[in-house]
């Protein structure tokens, strides 16, 4: 029995295949440039977590349906495949970005669920349509498999009204569902579970601040295993400084940009989502490059790094206050897992809050690790995230429920 995890984007499908017995990864890959010139399939296989083969091929892939059929073909391939028959795939887990207010947990997909996800498209117009496409083609290509939706927003459904409502006329929430939803929920919940296991403290007794720093970035305040606040909002634009997103700004700025610089709605949308953040401040959204430029004496890169870490530090303070008691801070994702400097700067000067990083431990690498001093009252952990594995775990749980 195998579980296929799919992340379907507008021009790509990422996939991972897991053994349902032990959730060990068997294969992963990416179909990219769907419907474009130069479309290609990149595929890897694994045995006992070690990569055993690689396969890359450019081939015409006009749509998502053909893309998924290519994925099935390579999974069945005599040399690079890992299954003998498509019926071995008993469930397909789909990443769905926005579940709105309707979906609080992982959900088995039927026609009604598809309709409800469609009704949420206006909340995530860039992400939900390609996610939906992935679901529709997976139902055709794997008709015998249980299809499961895992929502990026679901983990945040426990956030109370005082934290999820904006101070706007209340009808805008009641009528239009304008509120904070939060994203990266799969990652925040995965690292929170890992932290509970690592610290040997039950989730119900554990207060955490989880900090997901990838190209997109967000933080969550987790009290007794439940999320009580998060930095992304109605959309992923709010909160931390990100690769290309501004994060928090004065909400009046778009009016100023329109009135004084003559920018259109589309220009402002592009500016805040694609041209701001690290890229806007110093020209690159790649943190490795920002650090390289700063080391070479670039003042804009130095400023970008300072602004980036200062924002994280402010949120640590805010979430510590919201939680009242804090057991651990968890850093995760590309930057959180790999940049000792970002971790150090984000936690610097917080000794009076009981947060003390150990310089040497902070430079240790790989795996789950504790990087605080022995006297620090708050633990500081680095925990590699694995959103695909979490989706596979959720899918397996949903599958087991269907068999109860
Ligand atoms: P993700 O979206 O989780 O893949 O993270 C992407 C971000 O991680 C990019 O900004 C990368 O520059 C950053 N990143 C990856 N490796 C490192 C590293 N060794 N040091 C600093 N940033 C890194």
What's the gyration radius in Å?
22 Å
Q: Which ranges are low-confidence, i.e. pLDDT below 50, for 5 or more consecutive residues? A: none
CATH architecture identity of the largest domain: 2-Layer Sandwich
End-to-end distance: 17 Å
Number of domains: 2
Mean pLDDT: 96
Characterize the overall form: globular
How many helical stretches?
A: 15
Structural class: alpha/beta
Structure write-up:
Helices cover 39% and strands 21% of the residues. The chain has helices at 64-76, 111-119, 128-141, 161-164, 170-176, 185-199, 253-261, 265-274, 277-282, 287-295, 299-323, 333-338, 340-347, 359-362, 387-403; strands at residues 2-8, 13-19, 25-32, 40-47, 50-58, 89-96, 107-108, 146-151, 207-213, 217-223, 226-230, 328-332, 369-370, 379-382. The protein is globular. It is an alpha/beta fold. The strands form two sheets. Strands 5-4-3-2-1-6-8-7 form an eight-stranded mixed sheet, with helices on both faces. Strands 11-10-9-12-14-13 form a six-stranded mixed sheet, with helices on both faces. The model has no long low-confidence stretch (mean pLDDT 96). Strand 9 (207-213) and strand 10 (217-223) form a beta hairpin. The protein has two domains: 2-151, 2-Layer Sandwich (Nucleotidyltransferase, domain 5); 201-387, 2-Layer Sandwich (Nucleotidyltransferase, domain 5), CATH 3.30.420. The two termini are 17 Å apart. It binds adenosine monophosphate (AMP). Adenosine monophosphate (AMP) is lined by residues 214-215, 243, 286-288, 333-335, 338-339. Residues 214-215, 243, 286-288, 333-335, 338-339 line the site of adenosine monophosphate (AMP).
């Amino acid at each position: 029995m195998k579980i296929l995890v799919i992340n379907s984007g507008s021009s790509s499908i990422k996939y991972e295949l897991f053994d349902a017995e032990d959730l060990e990864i068997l294969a992963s890959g990416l179909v990219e440039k769907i419907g474009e010139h130069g479309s290609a399939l990149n595929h890897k296989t694994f045995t006992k977590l070690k990569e055993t083969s690689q396969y890359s091929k450019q081939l015409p892939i006009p749509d998502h349906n053909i893309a998924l059929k290519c994925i099935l073909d390579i999974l069945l391939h005599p040399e690079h495949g890992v299954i003998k028959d498509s019926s071995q795939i008993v469930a397909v887990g789909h990443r769905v970005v926005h579940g709105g207010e309707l979906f609080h947990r992982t959900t088995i997909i039927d026609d009604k669920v598809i309709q409800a996800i469609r009704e949420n498209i206006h909340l995530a117009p860039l992400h939900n349509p390609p996610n939906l496409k992935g679901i529709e083609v997976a139902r055709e290509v794997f008709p015998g498999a249980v299809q499961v939706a895992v929502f990026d927003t679901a983990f945040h459904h426990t956030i109370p009204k005082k934290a999820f409502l904006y101070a706007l006329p209340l009808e805008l929430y009641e009528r239009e569902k304008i509120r904070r939803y939060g994203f990266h929920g799969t990652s925040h919940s995965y690292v929170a579970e890992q932290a509970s296991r690592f610290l040997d403290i039950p989730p119900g007794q554990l207060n955490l601040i989880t900090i997901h720093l990838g190209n997109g970035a967000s933080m969550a305040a987790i009290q007794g295993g439940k999320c009580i606040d998060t930095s992304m909002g109605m959309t992923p634009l709010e909160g931390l400084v990100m690769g290309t997103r501004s994060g928090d700004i004065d909400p009046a700025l778009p009016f100023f940009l329109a009135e004084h610089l003559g920018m259109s709605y589309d220009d402002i949308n592009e500016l805040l989502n694609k041209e701001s953040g690290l890229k806007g401040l110093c020209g690159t959204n790649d943190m490795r490059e920002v650090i390289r430029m700063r080391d070479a004496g670039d003042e804009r890169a130095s400023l970008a790094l300072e602004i980036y870490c200062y924002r994280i530090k402010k949120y640590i303070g805010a979430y510590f206050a919201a939680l009242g008691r804090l057991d651990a801070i968890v850093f995760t994702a590309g930057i959180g897992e790999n940049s000792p400097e970002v971790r150090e700067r984000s936690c610097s000067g917080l000794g009076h809050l009981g947060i003390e990083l150990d310089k040497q431990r902070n430079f240790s690498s790989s795996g789950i690790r504790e990087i605080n001093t022995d006297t620090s009252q708050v633990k500081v952990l680095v925990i590699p995230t694995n959103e695909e594995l979490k989706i596979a775990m959720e899918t397996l749980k949903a599958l087991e429920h269907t068999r109860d």
